[in-house]
From TrEMBL, chain B:
Belongs to the heme-copper respiratory oxidase family. Gene3D superfamilies: Cytochrome c oxidase-like, subunit I domain. This is Cytochrome c oxidase subunit 1. GO terms for molecular function: cytochrome-c oxidase activity; heme binding; oxidoreductase activity. Its EC number is 1.9.3.1.
Amino acid sequence: MKLFIPNLLANDEAGFWFPSQGSTVAESVDSVYFFILYVCTFFFVLIVGLMVLFMIKYRHRPGVEAEKTVTHNLTLELSWSVIPTLLTIVMFWIGFTSYLDMRTPPASSYEISVVAKKWSWAFKYPNGWIESELHIPKGEDVTLTMASDDVIHSLWIPAFRTKMDVVPGRYTQEWFNATKAGTYPLMCAEYCGQKHSEMVTKVVVHETRGDFDKWLQVASDIHKNKTPVEAGEYFYKSRGCIQCHSLDGVPKNGPSFKELFGKERKFTDGTSTIADANYIRQSILEPQSKIVDGFRPIMPTFKGQLTDQDITAIIAFIKSQK
Amino acid sequence: MATIVDSSNPTSDFPIQYRELNYLNCSKGWKSWFFTLDHKRIGIMYLIGVTCAFFLGGIFAVLLRTELLSPSKVLMGPDAYNQMFTLHGAIMTFLVIIPGVPAAIGNIILPVMLGAKDVAFPRMNLGSFYLWMFGAAFFLAAMVLGGLDTGWTFYTPYSITTSTAVITALLGVFILGFSSIFTGLNFIVTIHTMRPPGMTWFKMPLFLWALYATALIQVLATPVLGITGLLLVVERAFHIGIFDPALGGDPVLFQHFFWFYSHPAVYVMILPAMGVISEVIAVHSRKHIFGYRFIAYSSIAIAIFGFLVWGHHMFVSGQSKMVAVIFSGITFSVSIPSAIKVFNWLTTMYKGSIRFTTAMCYGLAFIFIFSIGGLTGLFLATLATDIHLHDTYFVVAHFHYVMMGSSLVGLFAAIHHWWPKISGKMFNEFWGRIACLGVFLGFNLTFFPQFILGTRGMPRRYYTYLPEFQNLHIMSTMGAYLLGLSSALMAATLIYSVYRGKKAPANPWGGASLEWQCSSPPPHNNFDHPPLAGDPYVMESVVYNEEIGGFVPVECQGDNKESVTASGDKEV
């Protein structure tokens, strides 16, 4: 709604009262808001209008006393009790029905899990990728399943008109369906300490599901976003190396990675070699070719599962274990 | 109107009561004040304490608003900011608004309005004042001992984990709660047992109805706050696992406990102010209050409904949908009795003879501000809109319109209405009205822009904000400066009147309730004999007397004679 009142705010796309509507529920929330606003404006004008009228008309004049009028009138008093009651019932009803839509996540929606902590958001996508900004596709139901690491936070996206507390010790949910591509602020609305007001990030709505998938694929392309050592650690943890290869020197099913790189390895067939990049690469792709003395030949091959770039990262990670 | 204020410089044939001893000069020395059992002196001490707390909380408010002039640092860092908004809220709530009208004004006026010598339990009354002082001291101690940064709501688990002086502040809240309970208990017993001959429940002034309803809430709700505070202290000190999810506790349970007190407490803040406005509008319009019974019943209805709506603070807390819907429904029920009162006040003004005294100006400002405060509550009671507006500046604006704009403006109206009775002096009406205009304009300039900030997406309790909100924040801060200056002007006008003001007649405005029948200021024991009470709103029972600059009864009745015989001629 554009009022005649000049816009005091920088964002031209928005109305006087609200930021632009970014989700399917925004329109119904705004229409409930404006219904109440018009009812309230009517009553406010009525009350203040009568007050000002009486102030002028019945102001004290010397020699003129107040007129004696009736001190009560049941019909009048009942009418100004019953009419507002009926109006509030309407308000309750429209607010209640819109609310049910807002609080009932659709059965098949795209699920993103959220962890809130002082003072940042972590959005975890279905492929396991974690990002501090929320990215979603336009026109698709998205459900956030939220948990908090410390105190109560509250996830609010003003453009979507949705908000939900993130309470430690339980999961809460919030869902929306974005209607317009663009970038909107996402903030913490429940006071959470020193940097409460900096717990603000972005929601990026992608035009199509294809755009979104492409973004997710690129974002989760770990080699662009992380150093080789960090990426190697990610693979070490996520691809199961961690089950058999410790980092503290204690052998498990396989030898520990601690101080492994550059050391001489003795094998069950009596040969030996220096553990260099080529040796590690060969061990990942053809684990059975060289079995270190004292271990069983149980490691599976990762051929086809890890790219050369992934393996390079793992080598860098092993190299860093000193 | 001007004649009331400026004329009648009493000279030689000054009415006899002014030469008599009154409660202010009947005994001297600090002991006569600190150990007094006189409800009026205790009320004065409360008034002084509340005023100091108000200016302390007000200074915090002005500093906070100054910080918000820019999204970047102006005066202080985020830690200081968080502590300051917490203390601003806690001081204004617990030390100013809750005791403001009931404990300060109620203490002074309630027994006089009842034609009684004192409250039912004068020693308990003094005790509750010292509990208030003691509780206030804990608050000040918390400020020094590491501050407090939880917000006045003390939400867990933040309040369990923060390193600030939460326990000290909670003990302060606990003690203040006892002060509030004792005052409420005292008022209930006083109203039940000490009404004078002729004053039935439905002949009681509406201010007393409001204080009675308030007292019921104070007695029934405050213990819950006390217990909640103690549980939180225990949780912090011994890690029991009541509210801390890390120990198996439930943080939402704390919110239920907290709001079970704190929502009814909102009505402890607003009901007495509504009572004040019922008196002020009737007296200064020279009209019988319209719909007496509806106003009286609505006070009780608000007190009862007030207990059933706390869950509307928690629509986004993760409570079940069903609970949210029920609380939303009941919340609307509170709006109806409030609306009834507003319509009754307006109808009272109809065909009146409205004098724009300072008290009346505050009364009219109250109707304006309370209408906005009450109507914006509808947006927050409605589920769909509350989800968006919860924890934003819209809420900040709404509750300031109700708590500050209405409760405090009600307190200001009460102070000006009864100031001649309390101090025995008339204040300067010109400066009083200038201050009132400043409070009104400053208040609206401060808080109206905050509604827009809230709907546009500005969360509350933010130290910094998106740059697009700066214009509205600057407007708001300018309003706060005007509001602060006007409050100081109001205080200066009143304090000046104590030293230089004209002596007040017994009944300067023409009220028909009993407090206007004793002299101003009242004698130590108010009335020698219980006066005979009639309808407190028959304004025709008193007429203006030029000679003494106040109103006198049309016909002197029985026991009331003594205080009004000074009137020679009567204006007809």
